[in-house]
Amino acid sequence: MKLHIFAAHWGHAGKPAQQFIDEVKAAGFDGIEMSLPADDAEWAHWLERIRDAGLQLITQQWETVFHSDFTQHKTALESLLRRACAAQPLMVNSHTGKDWYSVAQNQELIALTAAISQETGVRIVHEIHRSRFSGHPALMAPYLANNPGLPLNADLSHWCCACESLLQDQQAMLEGIFPLVKHIHARVGHAQGPQVSDFRAPEFAAELQTHLSWWDQILQARVAAGETCLTITPEFGPVPYTATLPYSQQEVSNAWELNVAMIHLLRARYAAHGWC
Fold first, then answer.
1. 3-class DSSP state for residue 3?
2. Tens of each residue's pLDDT in the chain, 276 residues
3. Residue 213 belongs to what H/E stretch?
4. CB of 187 closer than 8 Å to CB of 155
5. 190: helix, coil or strand?
6. 231 exposure class (CB count in 10 Å sphere: 0-12, 13-18, 19+)
7. Which phi and psi angles does 273 have, rounded to 5°?
8. DSSP 37
9. Fewest beta carbons less than 10 Å away: which of 84, 100, 125, 276?
10. H or E segment at 81?
11. What angle do the packed helices 137-146 and 103-120 form, to 10 degrees?
């Protein structure tokens, strides 16, 4: 199995395409995960630059967060997913549904993504994320029952925040979802938030080791399933995910620096398995 590590475009929206791509290449990432621009010319420009750089692409749709009305949400989801799939990415990461929609409504959205994935031949994964249908283990349960092969992106930092714990009492749920995970967002959360200030700090050793153990189990499940590829995106985010000092608003850490540091940790950890 080969591990491919992607750079999150989140937090770099104002940066010219070529500048960001050059930084991604220099840092040693294998690809980029991003929501492509709405403008057609910019959309084509990014795709051309990414292809010319020899990088892989994971596209995102998260903009449905702006649509509370279910009918508008579903319409936007279909449009955004089709546009994301049209870029011919390795996969699409989707922020699907809302935690306050009914099970029937969220199930309708899950069925729509499955149909688009089948039609286009592009894998679509649902991100575990607060306020989505997957925002809490208890919320997720009926969808797992109704969709045994539900493809997931594991960002378990969100569940740490939602459950105010390192999920010590959620082991059965974790073991149930690990075989479904097709992508990982490698961010380290804690009991009171989705992002520690610096995963390298000794005070966050327990949080880091817990997340690493989850990622280990996901990778092992993929190997056991005969998969040849797993993708991971270090996804420490900008302010307000990155904490700031009061009054001065000075950032206490640098998200890009943390994401690059996570590359080195992952490659060192999994090189022994021949995955890097």
1. strand
2. 899 999 999 999 999 999 999 999 999 999 999 999 999 999 999 999 999 999 999 999 999 999 999 999 999 999 999 999 999 999 999 999 999 999 999 999 999 999 999 999 999 999 999 999 999 999 999 999 999 999 999 999 999 999 999 999 999 999 999 999 999 999 999 999 999 999 999 999 999 999 999 999 999 999 999 999 889 999 999 999 999 999 999 999 999 999 999 999 999 999 988 887
3. helix 205-224
4. yes
5. strand
6. buried
7. -85, -5
8. P
9. 100
10. helix 70-86
11. 60
Specify the amino acid at residue 15: K
Measured between alpha carbons, how far is residue 119 from residues 47, 56, 101, 149 in Å?
A: 22, 22, 26, 17
- Looking at the DSSP bridge assignments, the partners of residue 244 are 251
At 80, phi and psi to the nearest 5?
-65, -40
Tokens of 242: 């990155």
Contacts of 231 (CB under 8 A, 6+ apart): 3, 4, 5, 6, 31, 58, 90, 91, 182, 183, 184
Dihedrals φ, ψ of 91, to 5°?
-165, 170
Locate 62 and state its tokens: 């998260």
Residue identified by tokens 């999920």 is 167
Do 201 and 212 touch, CB atoms closer than 8 A?
Answer: no
CB-based contact 31:234 (threshold 8 Å): no
